[in-house]
Amino acid sequence: MGYRPTIGLEIHVELSTASKMFCGCPNHFGDPPNSNVCPVCLGMPGVLPTMNRQAYEYAVLMGLALNCRIATFTKWDRKGYYYPDLPKNYQISQYDLPLSSNGYIDLLVNGQTKRIGITRAHLEEDAGKNVHDLPGCTGVDLNRAGVPLLEIVSEPDMNSVPEVMAYARSMRQLVRYLNISQANMQQGHMRFEPNISLWVFDDAEPDGGHYTPIVEVKNLNSFRSLERTVAFEIDRQAGQWQADPDGYRMDKMSKQNRGWDDVREVTVYQRHKEEADEYRYFPEPDLLPVEIDDAWLGRIKAQLPELPIARYARFRKEFGLDEKLTTLLTSERGTADYFEAVVQAGASPHRAANLIQSQGLRLANERGTDVAGLGISAERLAGLCKLADEDKVSATTAAGIFQAMLESDDPPEKIAQDRNLMQVSDTSALEAIVAEVLSENGKAVADYKSGGKKAKKARSFILGQVMQRSKGQANPKVAGELIDRKVLGQT
Amino acid sequence: MPAKIDPDQVRRIARLARINLTQEELEQFSNQLSDILNYVDQLSELNTEGVEPTTGPLKISNVFRQDQAARSLSSEQALANAPCRHGDFFAVPKVLE
Ligand SMILES: [Zn+2]
Is there a smaller number of Cβ atoms within 10 Å at the N or the C end of chain A? Predict the structure, then answer.
């Protein structure tokens, strides 16, 4: 007997519009409590919601990026909700006519492509925030109530923790590529709800088998808690099944909700699904339907950028970069755009990639910005890459110049010259140094000449001396050739 | 006419709407709701074959606003009618996480 985890994921993403979904209140994190509210999002009687066009287009754009069928006709529904963070007592959502459905996303997991089905993606409104650390009461801040929220529901196509994580991270990357959400985890822009069960089967009968009861865990707001929750549930359900192979099965027990306890790192039983989840959906009478025609859809489609997985494949092929470097460069659209601009401006792809990876991403991270936000134009970085490509500066020096470019607007060549960092490739200048070093180190020269065991070490020693005497400015390749010629008579 | 909605169903609907009803009210509303359903049921006499289901009485769609933010109420105004507040928060009985 064996088992295979079967996991689906619901993701909620807050869209980065200027205003809320159905009213003009600012969609802005971190303002004083209840300062971004109006009669509409406070749920006052007699008000009328109006759709935010940008939010709708963002949602359609995501549907397109997820290869979904985009509905030409959609409407809104009320979903019963009795908590103080949404004072209308219902949430405006989409029930039977979601704006997109039947899509997929391709993931790279351990070098393999894995396709995950997307059941649907629809728009709804976010709830406000309950604050629990007040004395004797719960505080409610409705600034977030009514913020446009995209709900993306996957098929149960994931079979391992790494697949779940690749899916979640790809979704974050995708919404950031599309520029429809900042997907800032600390600000709660993305929340996860995994559905987890195990397919238990007998190796001898590949067609037979059964599922363990599905467990749904709500409101995970970090990648870490998602990862630990799914790993914990797989182990827990495997243990339950082993303890009670005949009873712990989906056809004998109903679906269960559990919560993640971040302190104890376990999931905790909350309730069985059958007791609740009657949302009493009905059509929202205050909103009109949305009909999307080919012209409008075409205008939205035109905004689709090259998507991360396509860009990854192209970078690998076009620039011959390895997996790790390509993943880094394509992780954010801004980084990938910047890299391509640097190459466009004349840098060799490998040099540009390495400098961006070793210096750019590190410096950007230190300064809390992205590579493009460092203020070094693609043309200037290409200039630096060319200096290194042409052996005018060493790779180490290039890294130093990169840093210096943050403080100076001079062209990289001038920075190198001003700081005496240009590499000496001019043979006549180097010849004198080489001759000096050779005459002072007779033993090393003899060892090198002998060709014995010590030859390699002796050559490095001589080269090291030359580099030292040139204060690091000698081009090691040129200096090495000079040494070989002088000592061995090679050309 | 046979009652379509029995008191148990009314109790269930009331629970979903977080409303407490007395036994008397359960009886009363089961009769009233049944009457309403029976009345509306007259519509089933119509032949609706070939008629598109409608989601609203208006033949209008796509009424949007531009994505422009504007401040509306101050937090003082927003909280003015709140039965209970704590600083700038609405205060409600403790909700367990
Ligand atoms: Zn509002």
Answer: C
> How far does A321 lie from chain B, in Å, by closest CA?
41
Per domain, the residue ranges of chain B are 7-43
CA distance A286 to A24: 16
Strands (E) located in A24-137: 51-52, 69-70, 73-74, 77-80, 90-93, 100-109, 112-125, 129-131
Residues of B with CB under 8 A from a CB of A: 16-18, 55-56, 58, 60-75, 78-79, 84, 86-95, 97
Pick the CATH number of B7-43 from 3.40.50, 1.10.357, 1.10.20, 3.90.1570: 1.10.20
Domain end marker among A236, A266, A298? A298
Task: Work out the minimum CA distance from A35 to partner chain B, whole angstroms.
Answer: 5
CA pair distance A209, A20, nearest whole angstrom? 47
Sheet with A282-283: strands ordered across: A90-93, A77-80, A282-283
Within a 10 A sphere around the Cβ of B62, how many other Cβ atoms?
A: 14
* C-alpha of residue A140 to centroid of ligand 1, in Å: 15
Tokens standing for A85?
A: 């963070």
Whether residue A158 is contained in a domain is answered as yes
What global pTM score does this model have?
Answer: 0.86
State which amino acid sits at residue A78: R
Query: Which residues of B fall within a CB distance of 8 Å from A148?
Result: none
Look up the ipTM and state it. 0.88
Q: What is the pLDDT of residues A152-209, one digit of tens each?
A: 999 999 999 999 999 999 999 999 999 999 999 999 999 999 999 999 988 777 677 8
